[in-house]
Automatic annotation (TrEMBL):
GO MF term list: 4 iron, 4 sulfur cluster binding; catalytic activity; metal ion binding
Protein name: Radical SAM domain protein
Entry GO CC: cytoplasm
Cofactor(s) listed: [4Fe-4S] cluster
Keyword entries, A-Z: 4Fe-4S, Iron, Iron-sulfur, Metal-binding, S-adenosyl-L-methionine
Keyword NADP in annotation: no
Length: 352
């Protein structure tokens, strides 16, 4: 059954921190607190619109839900919980900070039927967390995850490659830390420079260098592939495009693109193509390479605007690449070349 999310944006209200990349008003499009009646109205409005059978979830996004006073958390959750017990929705999820999780808070969330928590982890490198003024360290993340798991609540994490002082070593350290955390899923949001943030000031004075689009794609692809190989699902790469983000004066720098997730997937397939070709070098460039694959992978193999194919042809001087959709599994390519047949899947590709 397809998912339907009823999003409720909780702005910066309640959060005592000031992460250098954060301007929640710009990201969520709100700057005033949400109250009980408003939550009720948003849920009613969405439910009235849904005509097909869907798995419906109410999702509290945008701020640090569990940093709100407990009474306000209960006030906001109550309409969602009523919809849940009346079987009008199927789940309640929220996002929050790792250092705003206690046993008491989790008991209250359980009482109101919350089944999924997303932790804004961003990095597991304390130097990066400090440079980003996160106000928590990696230990808080492990403690929070431990408590959440003990309560049998599904827990996902959000990561932000590209924060100040992050380099490849730091990113790899984070990736291995995530494996130890064993989250139920991951979202990867490369760091963007949003207007009116401390990061924007640092970007302007030259003390922060934003990731380029290609660097953001490569770091995200590394994380996604590494997690996938360890059995951890990445459910999103790149922020969802919104009217606000697309305006042009909100995202000042950083790897933002409405098709970012697609670009990451295409890059992983580019790596598979390049990996195979490197393994048969030196090759006879007149011999065709036939790329057998699942029909759902064709656009990822081609890349946006056929970029992967053009690049492979350009870099390796290959003239004859033939794409053939057939019985291969998704995420697997069969390469036919010179009377030989090689099969590669995503588990066989390594970045480093
Ligand atoms: S914890 Fe979240 S809401 Fe608070 S300042 Fe940081 S990013 Fe913004």
């Amino acid at each position: 059954m397809r998912h339907y999310i009823i999003p409720i944006f909780i702005p910066h209200y309640g959060c005592k921190h000031s992460c250098i990349f954060c301007n929640q008003r710009k990201i969520t499009g709100r700057d005033t607190p949400v109250r009980h009646q408003e939550v009720q109205a948003i849920i009613d409005e969405h439910l009235a619109r849904i005509t097909e059978k869907r798995h419906i979830e109410v999702a509290f996004y945008g701020g640090s839900f569990t940093a709100l006073p407990l009474s306000m958390q209960s006030e906001l959750l109550e309409p969602a919980y009523t919809a849940l017990i009346n079987k009008k929705i199927h789940g309640i999820r929220l996002s929050t900070r790792p250092d705003c999780i206690t046993h008491r808070i989790l008991e209250n969330l359980k009482k109101f039927g919350v089944s999924i928590i997303e932790l804004g982890v961003q990095s597991l490198d304390n130097t990066v967390l400090e440079a980003s003024a996160r106000g928590h360290n990696a230990l808080h993340v492990f403690q929070a995850m431990n408590l959440i798991k003990k309560m049998n609540i599904t827990c996902g994490i959000q990561l932000m490659p590209g924060l100040p002082l992050e380099d490849w070593n730091s990113l790899i350290h984070t990736a291995y830390g995530v494996i130890k955390l064993v989250p139920d899923f991951v979202r990867i949001y490369p760091t963007l420079v949003i207007a009116n943030t401390q990061l924007a000031t640092r970007y302007d004075d030259g003390s922060y260098k934003a990731l380029s689009l290609s660097a953001g794609i490569i770091r995200s692809a590394y994380l996604k592939l590494f997690f996938e190989q360890q059995g951890i699902l990445t459910i999103r790469t790149g922020l969802q495009a919104t009217e606000d983000l697309d305006k042009g004066n909100i995202v000042l720098a950083g790897p933002y693109h409405p098709a970012f997730g697609e670009m990451v997937d295409s890059y992983i397939f580019y790596c598979m193509l390049a990996h195979f070709i490197e393994s048969i070098l030196p090759m006879d460039k007149n011999d065709p390479i036939i790329i057998h694959h699942h029909s759902r992978d064709t656009s990822k193999i081609r890349g946006i605007s056929n970029q992967n194919i053009k690049q492979v042809k350009h870099i390796y001087g290959i003239d004859h690449l033939i794409l053939k959709q057939d019985g291969h599994n998704k995420d697997e390519i069969g390469f036919e070349y010179n009377n030989l047949y090689y099969v590669l899947n995503k588990k066989m590709i390594f970045f480093i």
